[in-house]
């Protein structure tokens, strides 16, 4: 790997050799001027940052669906990022409501190389529990991916209450993105609608950056992976993508969806925390007058019905009417749509990190062990449809607790068992159930993986989770797909870390290019089928295994508990 100093020097030389005219792109919105950069291996690329893909959702547009992208006169500077959406970082609120920006990275521009052919496009949807995150290159840099002749996009979207190619975009987070308030002036699922607006922008504009809109792959991790699956369920996203990758996320994860009644309850809790009283009479106007900063702070204080969705109160819910929300994104619950088979059928790559739960217990609360031992029912996923306190719920809790802890008292001494419980309930079971529903309905190829590798680019290593037992934590795979600004040890050119980078980037971009996934890796990785279920384990070596032999004892318990729900 080249040193940072040599990359900076190379970039300065590139800038000197590229005219400002070569760095401009003319969109229907207006002209933008980007900047030039260099991948880790020295490939030149062009960056166009902070492009607005929708009107700023401010003022009267706060809880509305995204509106058409603004235009401008003159040349807009696209060398710096736009604002992130409101979120809490280190106990302080950061960001802006004016945050719907998209970023495009491309190794070629048609105006510079007229003979170039259009390249596949990979659009990244960031994670962060729908309450945090952005498309910022400090976490999702293009320095590995753009070596593989693709266009990369990222973006921001509204988060939390304000929110309910390769391109990166921002979307509204938290309450500002996922407010579940029933009101004629409130659009539901605005964070997902922001994402849809960003994908529509990609379809309309990416060819001008050298990308092929007909070969667009969406991919994301955690809440971004959940969003990818929502795109595959929504009837309003048809034609916006041809392939999909979901990393550690499923619409059937317990923190991915809330029923309409619970969404209403949470929205009412929020208004009370913000100081609403009956005398105010109009909840909508009360929330319109509340500061985005206060909304963002208070949304984390809204309580949920189950531990599995704790601190993630504002998530997608079904839309029965459009109201002022425009085109419906989610007409029914994810489970209903998956059962019906009425979803987008495209090639799909999905999987998980082998010890996802390490991330969730890296800062474990002191009262967790007491709650595990004395209130285990609250750890059961809500979608088992069990009422806490009933005999059925108590029997299910006893079965699950015995499966993971035997006759032992839950404590730091058996934290590995708690991590297995979290890995299964929060991630793996939902992902596997989604795969099974797709197999029922004759889905196109589905590829399944387990990321097990632990190295010096793993977040669990960098942030010192300090677990001695093996397994990759939630988000450990990200350091092997994206360049970041996070400090890490200098890596030898023959290190297993850089080998893993090469393998993961090769697999993902092969998929986006519709190539044999194992091309260049001496690997045969077959899709999951009813008669032959295999998965790829990504560790120091790449190895293919029988999916039915992945934690069979634990899975048998969950298969039994979900049998009535899923059939």
Automatic annotation (TrEMBL):
A Pfam family this chain is assigned to: COesterase
Range of residues in the leader sequence: 1-20
Entry-linked PROSITE patterns: CARBOXYLESTERASE_B_2
Keyword Transcription regulation part of the UniProt annotation: no
Keywords of this entry: Glycoprotein, Membrane, Signal, Transmembrane, Transmembrane helix
InterPro entries associated with the record: AB_hydrolase_fold (IPR029058), CarbesteraseB (IPR002018), Carboxylesterase_B_CS (IPR019819), Type-B_Carboxylest/Lipase (IPR050309)
Transmembrane spans: 161-181
Domain Carboxylesterase type B: 22-163, 165-546
Gene3D superfamilies, alphabetized: alpha/beta hydrolase
Protein name per the record: Carboxylesterase type B domain-containing protein
Taxonomic source organism: Timema cristinae (Walking stick)
